[in-house]
Specification:
Layout: H1 7-14, H2 16-24, H3 33-41, H4 44-59, H5 68-74, H6 88-93, E1 97-102, E2 105-110, H7 111-116, E3 120-124
Antiparallel strand pairs: 1-2, 1-3
Helix pairs in contact: 1-2, 2-4, 3-5
């Protein structure tokens, strides 16, 4: 599981649309026009949630599905609970995860997710 830079670093250094595009269409098969317009209709927080959701799918070996415009319009990102999942040990070793409450239940989430989804009761992950 490759761990690229954080969501904030990716968006700040590459420009948000570029980082997103590399995830969903690295071979540039699809036209930009409609996807760019749809992307910039999202708030910065929505852009970051979508990017992070797709990035974590790739980390877990799952496909990022569909044409970029379709992904932007139809994907509804949610945080991923890493508790007991493959790859969590690497995240723990790099101090990238916390225990936090989301929708009333505790789970193991990345620091970026805890911040983006405004989770509560955030605690350090002690292995």
């Amino acid at each position: 599981m490759a761990q690229p830079q954080s969501i904030g670093d990716a968006i700040a250094s590459k420009g948000s649309i570029e980082a997103f595009w590399k995830l969903v269409d690295p071979e540039n098969k699809y036209p930009y026009s409609s996807a760019i317009e749809a992307w910039y209709r999202l708030s910065l927080t929505e852009q970051r949630k979508l990017y992070l959701y797709l990035l974590y799918r790739k980390w877990r070996g799952l496909d990022v599905y569909g044409e970029p415009y379709y992904v932007i319009k139809n994907c509804h990102p949610v945080p991923f609970n890493w508790n007991g999942q493959p790859g969590v040990n690497e995240l723990v070793k790099s101090d990238k995860v916390v225990i936090a409450k989301y929708n009333g239940a505790f789970g193991t989430y990345t620091r970026d997710e805890a911040r983006l989804y405004e989770m509560t009761d955030i605690q350090p992950f002690n292995s």
